[in-house]
C-alpha cells in the first residue's frame, strides 16, 4: 500500500512499525459545538483507512482526541452560563450521535480528553523545560523554536520568514515572535490547574503530543487530519515531541483537503456553515459518507444541495443493485451450492481492482467505481437461473467491499401492519382495475417513505433514502 506522506511530499510504501499492528492518531474536534461538514471529512476518510487496514489483517489502535479546554470552550461556557466541562460533556455526547450515524467505528476508537491528561501534560512540559526547549515567563511557558533546528520541515515554512511576518503585535515576553504556548497562566473566570509555573491551563498543541505518546507510543505510524492543521498545529506537535523523545513523532502524515460550500470557503461569517446534525434533518448521513468518499481525500471538494442530491441518487443505485441481488439469493435453491467459475473470476477481478484502488493512496473514489461495476455486472448477468452458490459468492463480495467503505449497511425493514395492509389493498385494487385507488395508495406510501416497484415477480418495495 502506498500513502502520500505530507512530510516528504510523495507517495511512499506503507511499512508499519509493527508487522501486526498500526497506530493512527487523527486530530479530533474542539467540543464547543456540533461537528460541521468539514469535521466530517477526516472522520470518514480515515475511518475508511482503518477499515481497510483491518481487512489486511492489522490490529489498528485508532485515536481521535477531544479538545475540551481552549478559548472557544471558555467563550461558549460564558455565553451559556455553564462550566466548560458541561459544554464538553454535552457536545461529546452530540459528537457520538453524529459519528455513529456517519458509520464511524466509535466502539473501536480511543477518545481521550485534554483535561483528563493534565498531569501528563505538565510532566511533558517539565521535561521540555529541563532539556532547554521551553521557558517560563511569569507563569506562561513557551516552546523556543530557535532551539529546534528542524522547525518547518512538515509545512516547508522558513523560520526567518515566519519571524519577520510575526513582528507586528508580537508578545514582547517571548524570546522569538513565533514561539508558541505550552502552558497559559490563569486569567479571571477561566478553569485552571496547579502547576510548577503557577495556576493555569495547557496550550492547544501540547495535548496531541502528550496523548499520542501516552496511548500510542513515542513514534506512531500515521498522524492524520485536515490540511488546515498542517501549520502551525502539526508543525508544533513535531517540534515538541521530537525535541523531547529524540525520535520521529509520526512516520506518515496524511492530510485531507478542504470542503468549500458552493465554491466558497465555509465560514460562519459567510453564513455557509453546515453542521452534520443540521444536514441529518434533511438527508440520511449515509449520503454524506458516500459524498465524502466519492472524491479522493487530497482533492478539494464542493458541498451543495445539488451535489448531495447526486450522491443520494448514486447511493440509491447501489442499494437497488444490492437489493436485486439479495432478492435473487433469497429465492434461489439453497441446495445448489455450486459456484460458476466464470462469474467468480469476474467478481474476483472487481475485488482485486477495488483493493488496488485503496492501496493507491486510499483512492476511495476509484474503489467506489469498482462497486458500481460489480453491481452493473450482477444486474446484467445474474438471474433466477444462476445457482445459489454463485449468487451468495457475488453478494458476499459486494457486502465485503461496501463494508470497507462503510456503505450499504441497511437492510429492508419489516413493514408495519398499516403499510402491509395498504400494499395488500393496492394489489386488490389493481386486480379490480381500480387504478385511481391503486395510484392513491402508491402516493400515500411514498409520503411514508416507501417506494413501490411493480415487477414480473410481484411488487417490490424499498425505503426512500
Concise structural overview:
With 465 residues, the chain is α/β, with parallel strands linked by helices. The chain has helices at 37-55, 71-80, 84-101, 118-130, 159-165, 204-216, 230-245, 276-280, 285-293, 305-331, 341-359, 364-381, 388-405, 417-431, 435-447; strands at residues 2-5, 10-13, 21-26, 59-64, 109-110, 134-137, 140-143, 180-185, 200-202, 220-226, 250-256, 259-261, 264-265, 301-303, 450-455, 458-463. Strands 5-4-3-10-11 form a 5-stranded parallel beta sheet, sandwiched between helices. A 4-stranded antiparallel beta sheet has the order 6-7-8-9. Strands 13-12-14 form a 3-stranded mixed beta sheet.
Describe the structure.
With 465 residues, the chain is an alpha/beta fold. The chain has three domains: 2-132 and 143-153 and 204-256, HUPs (Rossmann fold, 3-Layer(aba) Sandwich), CATH 3.40.50.620; 310-405, Four Helix Bundle (Hemerythrin (Met), subunit A); 417-463. It has 15 helices and 16 strands. The chain has helices at residues 37-55, 71-80, 84-101, 118-130, 159-165, 204-216, 230-245, 276-280, 285-293, 305-331, 341-359, 364-381, 388-405, 417-431, 435-447, and strands at 2-5, 10-13, 21-26, 59-64, 109-110, 134-137, 140-143, 180-185, 200-202, 220-226, 250-256, 259-261, 264-265, 301-303, 450-455, 458-463. The strands form five sheets. It has a five-stranded parallel sheet with strand order 5-4-3-10-11, sandwiched between helices. Strands 6-7-8-9 form a four-stranded antiparallel sheet. Strands 13-12-14 form a three-stranded mixed sheet. Strand 3 (21-26), helix 1 (37-55) and strand 4 form a beta-alpha-beta unit. Helix 6 packs across helix 7, helix 10 (305-331) packs antiparallel against helix 13 (388-405) and helix 11 (341-359) packs parallel to helix 13 (388-405). The two termini are 34 Å apart. 38% of the residues are buried. The mean pLDDT is 92.
Amino acid at each position: 500500500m502506498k500513502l502520500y506522506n505530507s512530510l516528504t511530499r510523495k507517495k511512499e510504501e506503507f511499512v508499519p512499525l509493527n508487522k501486526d499492528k498500526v497506530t493512527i492518531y487523527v486530530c479530533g474536534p474542539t467540543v464547543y459545538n456540533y461537528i460541521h461538514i468539514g469535521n466530517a471529512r477526516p472522520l470518514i476518510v480515515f475511518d475508511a483507512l482503518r477499515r481497510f487496514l483491518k481487512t489486511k489483517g492489522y490490529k489498528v489502535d485508532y485515536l481521535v482526541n477531544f479538545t475540551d479546554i481552549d478559548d472557544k470552550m471558555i467563550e461558549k461556557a460564558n455565553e451559556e452560563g455553564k462550566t466548560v466541562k458541561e459544554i464538553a460533556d454535552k457536545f461529546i455526547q452530540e459528537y457520538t450521535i453524529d459519528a455513529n450515524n456517519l458509520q464511524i467505528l466509535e466502539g473501536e476508537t480511543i477518545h481521550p480528553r485534554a483535561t483528563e491528561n493534565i498531569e501528563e501534560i505538565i510532566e511533558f512540559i517539565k521535561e521540555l523545560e529541563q532539556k532547554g526547549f521551553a521557558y517560563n515567563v511569569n507563569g506562561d511557558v513557551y516552546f523556543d523554536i530557535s532551539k529546534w533546528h528542524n522547525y518547518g520541515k512538515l509545512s516547508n515554512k522558513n523560520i526567518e520568514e515566519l519571524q519577520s511576518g510575526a513582528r507586528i503585535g508580537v508578545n514582547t515576553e517571548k524570546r522569538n515572535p513565533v514561539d508558541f504556548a505550552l502552558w497559559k497562566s490563569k486569567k479571571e473566570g477561566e478553569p485552571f490547574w496547579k502547576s510548577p509555573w503557577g495556576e493555569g491551563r495547557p496550550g492547544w498543541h501540547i495535548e496531541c503530543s502528550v496523548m499520542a505518546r501516552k496511548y500510542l507510543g513515542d513514534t506512531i505510524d500515521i498522524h492524520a487530519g485536515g490540511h488546515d492543521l498542517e501549520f502551525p498545529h502539526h508543525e508544533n506537535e513535531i517540534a515538541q515531541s521530537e525535541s523531547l523523545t529524540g525520535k520521529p513523532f509520526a512516520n506518515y502524515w496524511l492530510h485531507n483537503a478542504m470542503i468549500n460550500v458552493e465554491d466558497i470557503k465555509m465560514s460562519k461569517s459567510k453564513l455557509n456553515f453546515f453542521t452534520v446534525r443540521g444536514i441529518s434533518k434533511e438527508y440520511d448521513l449515509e449520503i454524506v459518507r458516500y459524498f465524502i468518499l466519492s472524491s479522493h481525500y487530497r482533492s478539494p471538494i464542493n458541498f451543495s444541495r445539488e451535489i448531495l442530491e447526486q450522491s443520494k441518487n448514486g447511493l440509491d443505485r447501489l442499494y437497488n443493485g444490492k437489493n436485486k441481488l439479495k432478492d435473487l439469493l433469497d429465492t434461489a435453491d439453497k441446495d445448489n451450492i455450486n459456484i460458476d467459475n466464470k462469474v467468480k473470476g469476474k467478481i474476483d477481478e472487481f475485488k482485486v481492482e477495488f483493493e488496488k484502488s485503496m492501496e493507491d493512496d486510499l483512492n476511495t473514489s476509484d474503489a467506489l467505481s469498482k462497486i458500481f461495476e460489480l453491481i452493473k455486472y450482477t444486474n446484467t448477468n445474474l438471474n433466477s437461473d444462476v445457482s445459489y452458490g454463485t449468487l451468495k459468492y457475488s453478494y458476499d463480495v459486494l457486502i465485503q467491499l461496501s463494508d470497507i467503505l462503510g456503505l450499504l449497511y441497511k437492510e429492508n425493514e419489516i413493514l408495519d401492519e398499516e403499510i402491509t395492509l395498504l400494499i395488500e389493498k393496492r394489489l386488490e385494487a389493481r386486480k379490480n382495475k381500480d387504478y385511481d385507488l391503486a395510484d392513491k395508495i402508491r402516493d400515500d406510501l411514498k409520503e411514508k417513505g416507501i417506494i413501490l416497484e411493480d415487477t414480473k415477480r410481484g411488487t417490490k418495495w424499498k425505503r426512500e433514502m
